[in-house]
Amino acid sequence: MLKNAKYIRNAAPHIIPSPEPLDGFKSLVPLDILRRFNGMSDAELATWPELLAVKQTLRPRPELAMQPRLFGDPPFKGTLHIVKLIFFTEADGGTITIDDSDIATVLEYTTLAAVPISAYCSQYGSNRLEVSPNILQFGPAVPNALYNDDRVRAMVNSILEQNHLDADSSCIILLNPPGMTNTDADPADGVLGYHDKANSPYCFVNVLGAGLTVADRRDLYADSLSHEIAEMTCDPDASIFNHEVCDGCAGNCKNSWHNFFAGPSLSLTNPLSYLQSSKTFPAAPFTYFIASIAARPHADDCPAPDGACAYGPPIPPVTVPGQAQVWPVTRSSEHLDVFVTDISGNILTAAWEPDFADGWHGWWRIGNLVAPQGAPVHCVSRSTDHLDIFVTDSSGNIQTAAWEPDFADGWHGWWPINGGRAAPGAPVTAVTRSADHLDVFVVGTDGHVYTAAWEPDFADGWHGWWRMST
Ligand SMILES: [Zn+2]
């Protein structure tokens, strides 16, 4: 809808002038036309000759319409930044916001959901979705409880600037609290969210209540949030010629498919955590769900056929650079685990034991950390069935993660080790000199060798770093 409004504003500023009225684009052009403009026939627009003329300017590019720019444009590769908006309403001096606990739930949800969203979107092109663990805050002052998309764009640009974010690799996630209305995305009109691009891509999502949960059985945010993140990932420029990849499976096309998942880890060769696709919430437990993403051959169908909405995440191929090191470790008799960083910078692991009749299991991605492609991942087993791994991430932070059988939810971490820094991808070697003692070694950014140590008695975590030479 916003794509259409902005196309009309560019082509015909006499119909939709700037600045945008507070009551939204729908106060200038009926909502029904804004929603369907790029798909409407000449006959339907006959009573709006000026809009018909604008529509005809879309025509001279049939080769683009046939071959959406999406498939030539790169999908999103970067970081989602979640923003807690604290509106100050000048009329009554009040503030309207979303509780910290609810924002934390949204962050937890997004961190889980980004993994399968990225996998589904991989059929539209190579993409990368990281989720920043830091919740940003922004406090716009507004006259009353109404604002519009022009204001949203200004907010996005201010948030980028204030937080020194790279516009080419950031997406701003704005969560609108109940009680505030963006007139271009009014839940009363059935609009729950949208994505667009200011200086960077952004997703706008109406949060419909409080007391949020990751499973979101009350349908208060997860459906629209996953929908907009997926569409943004496939179409970060919000081009009018691109597909909206969720619409064919969603309410926009009188459909309502969702994909349900258990647990956090998505195995790259066997999407074990995918449970099922369903139009209704299953009675059985699930951890979280996402809006379905139409299979690419049906991206233009409205609605898309059931089979193009109800399917598990495609398995992206695991590809590792030729010079990469594969690091093996044995945590108990006859158990093997190996670690490697693939060409996208994902840290991957696979496992073998004699009971696996079908050979090696995996690969599984370990958390959302990104390291330079092929970066060495060193592992040590400090006691039976304990694994600790070490890597220097793409930002040069020295990081560790851990696994033991008691961790029902898979790997724990990543944790930075005491602010230690090295060249991105620098090897971090580790050794265990007695049970449960860890010593790690790395060359720091100043060319000196550093070490740090850990043992269970260190209540405050890792000790170090100590420089080993003068
Ligand atoms: Zn959509």
Query: pLDDT below 50 for ≥5 consecutive residues: which ranges?
Result: 60-72, 266-272
Helix percent reads 10-25%
Mean pLDDT: 89
The helix-and-strand class reads alpha+beta
Oligomerization category of the chains in this entry: single chain
Can you list the ligands bound to this structure? Answer: zinc ion
Largest sheet: 6 strands, mixed
Which tags fit this structure?
Neuraminidase; 17% helix; binds zinc ion; 6-stranded mixed β-sheet; 3 domains; 470 residues; alpha+beta
Topology (SSEs and partners):
Blueprint: H1 2-11, H2 31-36, H3 49-56, H4 62-66, E1 77-85, E2 87-89, E3 94-96, H5 100-121, E4 128-131, E5 136-138, E6 141-142, E7 146-147, H6 149-162, E8 170-176, E9 181-182, E10 193-197, E11 201-206, H7 222-234, E12 258-261, E13 274-278, E14 288-291, E15 327-329, E16 336-341, E17 346-352, E18 361-370, E19 378-380, E20 387-392, E21 397-403, E22 412-421, E23 429-431, E24 438-443, E25 449-454, E26 463-467
Parallel strand pairs: 1-4, 1-5, 1-8, 2-6, 7-9, 8-11
Antiparallel strand pairs: 2-3, 10-11, 12-13, 12-14, 15-16, 16-17, 17-18, 19-20, 20-21, 21-22, 23-24, 24-25, 25-26
Helix pairs in contact: 5-7
The protein binds zinc ion (ZN).
